[in-house]
């Protein structure tokens, strides 16, 4: 069954959900985003679930692979994020391979240096880039829902030790600080009255929350 065949009407998520990630940074962000909704979150890593091979050709496909695998293995609803940095002058790279550019040791300082080297190799002066996040929420019966968010900005010399991944080199539009220089609360905090959010993952979560979550009380 294809992902499009699995998607139907929105379901309300309650009780316990599996966050299908082994990435500590993503886990912290997702738990904080879920906190206002009274949903208990357990990670795939805490359940000892294996990481499936991410064989998709789009962020949404890889997110679905992870969410569906976790939902089937745990018999609980699960949601997964697949995200990455897309650099305009590198034809969207590293994109789907953002984590792989960091290598098995998750050396993102090396990955950021590689981006600079690739830009220099091309003689590129365009520093525009954007982060993409695809969130897929899956139930054990195969039902899935997809939500996406993007944030646009410029690449700068890495600054700041906050955040994770490529955050230190990404300065979002409208700010003079990188994602590596802002607190987690500012990066993925949500103004629930307006629905405004800064990060790509928070923006995707806003649409998920509007469709599938309800505040207690």
From TrEMBL:
SUPFAM superfamilies: ITPase-like
EC number(s) per entry: 3.6.1.66
Cofactor remark from the record: Binds 1 Mg(2+) ion per subunit.
Reactions catalysed: XTP + H2O = XMP + diphosphate + H(+); ITP + H2O = IMP + diphosphate + H(+); dITP + H2O = dIMP + diphosphate + H(+)
Quaternary organization: Homodimer.
Biological role stated in the UniProt entry: Pyrophosphatase that catalyzes the hydrolysis of nucleoside triphosphates to their monophosphate derivatives, with a high preference for the non-canonical purine nucleotides XTP (xanthosine triphosphate), dITP (deoxyinosine triphosphate) and ITP. Seems to function as a house-cleaning enzyme that removes non-canonical purine nucleotides from the nucleotide pool, thus preventing their incorporation into DNA/RNA and avoiding chromosomal lesions.
Family per similarity comment: Belongs to the HAM1 NTPase family.
Name assigned to this protein: dITP/XTP pyrophosphatase
Species for this entry: Methylorubrum rhodinum
């Amino acid at each position: 069954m294809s992902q499009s065949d699995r998607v139907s009407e929105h379901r309300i998520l309650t009780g316990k959900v599996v966050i299908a990630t082994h990435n500590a940074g993503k886990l912290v962000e997702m738990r904080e985003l879920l906190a206002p909704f009274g949903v208990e979150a357990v990670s795939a890593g805490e359940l000892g679930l294996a990481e499936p091979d991410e064989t998709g050709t789009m962020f949404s496909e890889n997110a679905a692979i992870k969410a569906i695998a976790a939902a089937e293995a745990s018999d609980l609803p699960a949601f997964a994020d697949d995200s990455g940095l897309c650099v305009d002058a590198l034809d969207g790279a590293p994109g789907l391979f953002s984590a792989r550019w960091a290598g098995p040791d998750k050396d993102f300082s090396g990955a950021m240096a590689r981006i600079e080297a690739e830009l220099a190799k091309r003689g590129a002066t365009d520093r525009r880039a954007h982060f993409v996040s695809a969130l897929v929420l899956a139930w054990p019966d195969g039902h899935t829902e997809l939500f996406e968010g993007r944030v646009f900005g410029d690449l700068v010399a890495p600054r700041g030790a906050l955040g994770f991944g490529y955050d230190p080199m990404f300065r979002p539009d409208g700010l003079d600080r990188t994602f590596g220089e802002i607190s987690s609360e500012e990066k993925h905090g949500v103004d629930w009255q307006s629905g405004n959010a800064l990060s790509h993952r928070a923006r995707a979560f806003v649409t998920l929350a509007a469709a599938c979550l309800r505040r207690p009380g």
